[in-house]
Design a protein that fits this description.
Length: 185
Amino acid sequence: MRRYDRRDLGLLLLRLGAGGALAAHGAQKLFGWFGGHGIEGTGQFMESVGYVPGKTSATAAGLAETGGGTLLALGLATPAAGAAAAGAMAGAAAVHAPNGFFNQSGGYEYAATLGLTAASLAITGPGRLSLDHLLGHAVNRGWMIPAAFAATAAGTAVVVGARARRLRKAKEGEQEALFEEEYME
């Protein structure tokens, strides 16, 4: 009989908690489960915050969250799963950043926490209570960590950068009021 240590149990709990939250968050986008809006509603939201095309953005984010979260919970393909989920959360954090850090003000606290947890699991590994361990780490090799993060960082930078340019361009056409309305009366 194998003995598992505290680290293995801790990583299992962390993977199940963060992976489960990510998977549920993505299922809201993809399927409308758990009070979500599905692809249509999420696509409209994504478009309204600058991620165009909206349905494609909703699908990509939903797949990264649902797929990455599920794989993290299972401890399978941990580098790719953690990097994908972290990339999705970086995109979410970009939307919430203007509201500051704390979630109660609409800030990026939640997205940052999930993203950093996913990234940490990708780097640390899933522990022995995982499918990666059971399968001899066939899809959890050391070289996969930088490769997964490089690919995710490049994709995330392109998507978030395009959104930022789109928002800047939209703002260029707006003119700020010269006087506050209370002084106009």
